[in-house]
Amino acid sequence: MSDLGPEPQPRPTPPAQTAGARPTPTGEVPLRPASGAEPAGRAGPAGRAEPADGAGPADGAEPTGPRSDGDRFAHRPPGYPSALVWLRAGILRDWRGVLGSFLATWFYVPLALVSAVWGGLALGLYGLIAGGTRSDEAVPALLRDAPLVGPLLDAFVARSGGVVGGFAGFVVGALVGFLVVLVLPWRNAFDEPANLFTGLAGMVVAAGLVGMLYTVGRVLLEPWLLGVSGARPLSRREADRLRPLLTDCAARLGLPGEPRLLIEDDPVLTNARAYARHVVVTTAVLDCSDEEIAALLSHELVHWRTGDEVTSAFIRGVGLPLVLVHALPAWLMRRFPHPATDFVVFLFFWPVLLTMRYLVLPCHRRDVRAAEYRADTGAVLAGHREGMRAMLERRRSFETGRSGWDEAVCATHPPSELRLDRLDQPAPDPVTDRAATARDLDALFGGTGTAALNSRRALLLVGALVLVSCLGGGLTAAQWAFFRPQAAVGDYFAALDDHDAPAALAQLIPDVRAAVGDGGQLARMVEAKGYQPPTDVSVTAVERDGDEASATVAYTLGGQQLTAELSLRRDDSAVLGLFHRWRIAAAPASLTLPGGPARLTVNGVPAPTGPEQVAVPLLPGAYTVAGESNALSETASRVVYVVPGQQSVSGAELTPTLRPEAQSAAEQSVRSYLDACAAQAVAAPQGCPLRYYSGGATVKKIAWKITEYPTIELTLTGPTTARVSTAYESQGSARATGSTVGYFGTTPFTDTGTFGVSGVLSVVDGKLTFQPGDD
């Protein structure tokens, strides 16, 4: 698609507008399709919706080209095995343009420019002030004291310190501001280098996907886009003039099909443009000779055949966010061509305009200019050298100088003089040397179509895609199997089922593991036979919120089917720099045991003791808590169930009960104690409940006899102690016999009294021992 006919006198391009930029059918401006160019300042051609039968009522007999009733890409170029190969050939050709569009858009270059300018201004202002006010500190004392050199340096710094400081500050600030925007999204890569690869790969995939979708959409909607911008089918008179020329040119180029030919009403500009599936000419072309028209159509057929429009569409798609933002200032500057408008637009959109002008367009326009040389070569091989020379000579008469960035670096077409120079290069005569012409045409189109499938670049790309797909599939499978929240929950309960407490604790977050301690006692409790883990565990639902998740777990414990919620957290560190494990954030439940000397056991493992209550951490499952059993008391064991996610456990308040045989043993111990008391021949045996009151007389030869032993009552005060007491109605009796010596001599006596027993019964060396004491 080229401007090969006469042009009007070109008008100056606004300073901030890219020369040669033109709107696409959707109003986009930034990227010039590789298949040609139009005169500056003119809206681009478009077409109309394609009739279902491939020809409108006024089209005349229009060949349909390579299409089928179900082909959505009708009128695509021939020579490609499929539409996919055609799109791929166009997409992969201009790697510089794709790279420039990718870097500018996905690395936020416009934002980096804004950050660079503001950072440069801030540090430049600081350097200007600091350099002007602290210049005396810039010169070391050693140099300042040196003859001649010291005064010279002082004078230099005093008069230029502010300027130098401001310039240095601006450079440093701009560089830092620019790099901050580029580096900030990759800050996690410093801790995990794999994030750099995965992040870059994700950006490439996203950019490629957006570019592909945009390209396919543009190709599919091309008839409608061209229709709404003014292109129409040919009339019969126009078709009689142009259709035979197009068919002849296609045959000369060895093309078995043709694009659909549309025309737009413009009697001034001699212009043509090749799209992905159409070629659009202006009505001014009808005023040219048949040779010139044939040269023009041959030129555009080469653009169409090589898929230059597909290349440009993909580059626009890769940089679609930047392209859409750039469309507004470009439209304003084109719609209102005034210096004041240009200044205001540039003031608001300068980062986008500069990025497009100095990064994106220069990268792509190199391929655009190469495509023009390629299309000129195709016209020569079709036998229309003289027609092409006439068109270029006419165009050269309207060309201005190529001074400036826009006209030189961002130009869409090479200078006409250089194109004319290439036309003079030797080429085979298409009439007399058809074999050589066929070879040259095959070389011209050899980079696309079936030959591209066997090219080294295609093979490398296919191999890279296969490798990435396999690697991505393997990594995805590993992530799915081992690094999902469900995997962490499954590993946790699998360790419990294996009675492996260390493995279960390894699935907890570090903070929780630290709170458990060494976990040795907990491991022994889980390894014991009395431990019952949850069974029939299944994860029914997982809800994620960033690096945190909540899993709903169904399980069976104690014969009951239950559900629980487990909170999980994603590790900050990565395995192999790629995978982040999930760990359970729920702490083990806390079982509170009573304090005191009594020792309890959990699954047969002695629990810690202390003067106050003691908390024992427990993992989910069933535990048997038992107390101490001895000759005095016994404590019935109790099963405690710990459900996942539970924080505290109750039900371990074990109460010791008196053994039935402890009563008789206690009575026997008390009787032994009373018999020992009765054996003492004193009126008040020490530590005994027996007493004889003589009224002040001296007691001689007293003897005690227990006539009835008291009935004692035992009250447990602990697992190994009990309080011994005697009820009033259950007191025992004893008879004392002897004599007393008084004022009137020796007097014999016999006395009977009641008594009770109190004290403490305790277990000593496994036996019950009575210790008397006050009740």
From TrEMBL:
InterPro entries: HtpX_protease, Peptidase_M48
Domain Peptidase M48 residues, every copy: 238-426
Protein's UniProt name: Zn-dependent protease with chaperone function
Gene Ontology BP, a term: proteolysis
Pfam families: Peptidase_M48 (PF01435)
Bias-annotated ranges (Low complexity): 16-66
Coiled coil: none
Regions crossing the membrane: 106-129, 163-184, 196-216, 313-331, 343-360, 458-482
Cofactor(s) required for function per UniProt: Zn(2+)
Alphabetized UniProt keyword annotations: Cell membrane, Hydrolase, Membrane, Metal-binding, Metalloprotease, Protease, Transmembrane, Transmembrane helix, Zinc
GO molecular function: metal ion binding; metalloendopeptidase activity
Annotated segments matching region Disordered: 1-74
Highest taxon listed in the record's lineage: Bacteria
